[in-house]
Design brief:
The chain is of the alpha/beta class and about 280 residues long. The chain is about 40% helix and about 15% strand. It contains 11 helices and 8 strands. Helix 5 (about 130-145) links the parallel strand 4 and strand 5 (about 150). The two termini are about 30 Å apart.
Length: about 280
């Protein structure tokens, strides 16, 4: 009889926006200390960057990466405001108004100079799907010895109860059209990705019930789950973002005992990027 090999289900639960506001920082650390969050990516141009660095030093088990920003906030190089939308960023890239490599290199350096060793890279609003941004991100990953880069292509989530809104499914499908070049560029620079990714289609809608159900469809291999937890305090309420009250709901889901039980029931193993080797 030929033995059947069963792939381990390894899950990295990674929070975006560390450094955005102090209340977001607090929620991320809480989700790690009391819940299933294993990693986060830090915004070098975030208003609460120094607070995030302090918390990272106090929480050494929290895996830190770089959340590279070209939309929203201000440049570390020119001190000017970045474009506010993806369309404005595409126009700026097309006309050469943003020195992408210089901008992103300054962000990685600020994190490294703060004494942190990033293990993974991703981008705010998934801008590394744009070819000039991807080229810069892959180059920086190689130069700084950061081996992991987010692959922002959701595995199918249509089986989840309530499904996914049609426009969100279409947007996710459009991202998938860039998959071939994306992986080719990363391979050329020695970068790795998880086998699977989830989170784009359920951003802002992740509650305890949804997270419990998600554990039942985690595939074999390695998966990154992108989340956005936080405390919805005064700083977050004043910030320019659509994700406010939803961060509190995600935090509650990430620390819910029902989610831990679902992980055990479905054989899902929590890891960080260091745990993936």
């Amino acid at each position: 009889m030929i033995p059947i090999l069963i792939q381990r289900k390894q899950l990295v639960v990674n929070a975006d926006d560390f450094g955005f506001t102090p209340d977001v920082n607090a929620g991320i650390v809480e989700a790690h200390r009391d819940g299933i969050l294993t990693a986060t990516t830090l915004m070098a141009n975030g208003d609460a960057f120094e607070d995030a660095v302090r918390l990272a030093r106090e929480t050494p088990a929290l895996d830190i990466g770089c959340h590279l920003v070209l939309i929203g906030g201000h440049s570390l190089v020119t001190k000017k405001a970045f474009p506010a939308t993806a369309a404005q960023l595409m126009a700026a890239l097309a006309t050469g108004r943003i020195r992408v490599y210089d901008e992103l290199a300054a962000q990685v350096r600020r994190i490294v100079y703060a004494g942190l060793r990033p293990s993974h890279l991703d981008t705010h609003k998934h801008t590394h799907l744009a070819p000039p941004v991807l080229d810069a991100v892959a180059r920086l990953a190689e130069e700084f010895g950061v081996h992991w880069v987010r692959r922002p292509f959701d595995f199918p989530l249509h089986a989840l109860r309530g499904g996914v809104p049609r426009m969100t499914r279409l947007a996710s499908g459009a991202l998938g059209l860039m998959r071939r070049r994306f992986h080719r560029v990363l391979t050329q620079h020695g970068c790795r990705t998880t086998d699977h990714f989830a989170g784009f289609q359920i951003t802002g809608r992740l509650r305890t019930a949804e997270l419990v159900e998600l554990m039942s469809v985690i595939p074999g291999g390695s998966t990154e789950l992108m989340v956005h937890p936080g405390r919805c305090g005064p700083a977050l309420r004043a910030a320019r973002t659509r994700l406010k009250e939803s961060r509190e709901a995600e935090l509650a889901a990430l620390v819910a005992p029902e989610v831990r039980a679902a992980m055990l029931r479905h054989g899902v193993e929590l890891v960080n990027y260091a745990g993936l080797g």
